[in-house]
Amino acid sequence: AAAPSTRLELRNLTTGAVIPFPGAASSSFAPGGRHLVVRMARPAGAPNGSAGADLVLHELATGTTRNIGTV
User: Fold this and answer.
1) What pTM was computed for the model?
2) 8 φψ region: left (φ > 0), alpha (ψ -120 to 50), beta (else)
3) Are 20 and 9 in contact (CB under 8 A)?
4) Contact status, residue 37 vs residue 57, Cβ threshold 8 Å
5) Tens of pLDDT along 11-61?
6) What are phi and psi of 30, to 5 degrees?
7) Exposure letters 26-54 (e unless 16+ CB within 10 A, then b)
8) Contact between 36 and 27 (Cβ < 8 Å)
9) What distance lies between CA 22 and its chain's CA centroid?
10) How far is the C-alpha of 6 from the C-alpha of 59, rounded, in Å?
11) Alpha carbon of 42 to those of 15, 17, 22, 50, 69: distances in Å?
């Protein structure tokens, strides 16, 4: 079964801008604080025994978000 889905929001405390990450299962700031790493929830209907889920890397300085893919 897929993990429960949550919504993660990254808020810029200077500007108030919010970047949503719907469907986040967990998150952590990378060592050094340059990136936010978000592991997304497994999609509904994922095959049994499949533990993989998308990993999203967000660079805080530039605001660039990159989907690394299933890990």
Assistant:
1) 0.78
2) beta
3) yes
4) yes
5) 999 999 999 999 999 999 999 999 999 999 887 766 666 677 899 999 999
6) -70, 155
7) ebeeeeeeebbebbbbbeeebeeeeeebb
8) yes
9) 8
10) 21
11) 32, 27, 12, 9, 12
Asked if 30 and 36 touch (Cβ cutoff 8 Å), the reply is: yes
Alpha helices in 7-70 (DSSP H): none
* Sequence-ordered alpha helix ranges (H) in the chain: none
Q: 63 and 45 in contact (C-beta within 8 Å)?
A: no
* Side chain identity, residue 45: G
Structure tokens given for 56: 């999203």
